[in-house]
Amino acid sequence: MTQGSPFRVALPTEEHSVSNKVAIIGTGTIGLGWAVTFSRAGWSVVLMDQDIDVTNKAKLRAEQIIASQKACLIDEGLESQTSITCSCDVSAAVTGANLIIEAVPEVLAIKQGVLKEIERFADPETIIGSSTSAILPSSIAANMTHPERFIVTHPFNPSYLIPVVEVVPAVQTAQNVVDITCNILTSLGMRPVSVLLEIEGFVANRLQCAIVNESINLVSNGVASVEDVEACITDCLGLRWAVYGPLSTMHNNAVGGFAEYAGKFGSSYSLLGEQLDLGATWSDEVIGEIDRQLTCGSEGLTRKQELKLRDEAVQAIIACKQSIKQSLEDVRQQNKKVEND
To answer: Please, are residues 219 and 281 in contact by the beta-carbon 8 Å criterion?
Structure first.
């Protein structure tokens, strides 16, 4: 829960306006994804890295991704023109920005050093975000002059396709910074998830950690092969969870809803939970075995081809989900009409 006082923010203008400027500090996978997300929504994007050649390559890759998405149903609203510029100077990158996102390596000292530089040159009313995936916000913001304008915005790879962004305030973060950040993300077509308390791993990675560690345990203990463990997600749980999350799935699996389901199976889940050892040992032996099985399973495809297929599959799933959501909304409206007749 945020404790900070309201922060005076220089609000962005209307959606899809290049007068909105975002400065992205860092041109790795996440910085690249942010550049795609903001640029396709019409924002003016400045990519900044110490190495201008690296920044130029990131810009080219971002423009290629945007070009490949223009014909996709999920991106009908893409702007016809993109505005991505490159910089190797923090001052030039952040001056005049409506929003600044730090996306440098996951090292606390590096992030704190970059934030110190950003604060030297950023406009006083600009929100500063960090795309950390694991470091607690209050730790990153500990040395900031104005921590009330700091917030974690944690996307997921590939961030130009996966809509969820975890929004995690530090203790000092002002509540209106949280609200405005969520509104900006929503305007970009993202799905902000408000993390109400600082916690290691935030939300999604805690869920992922539980599944991944148990997957490693199952393989390590000889319970199932990598292929079969993966099938339990891709051809079973994942199919349901792509439409309804785990709690909603339980709710729909009992006539009386979640309460009835919990009454029937809650004790079994509790007992199994006590038996699970989610602190998996990532031994060299099991890592090698999993890598061997995964490598054999992907024979005939390059990593680049696999990532391309992944992106195409995610796009198809998102388009399908949008169609399903529209169908559900149509049914809701029909039900309301029947009730009112």
So the answer is: no
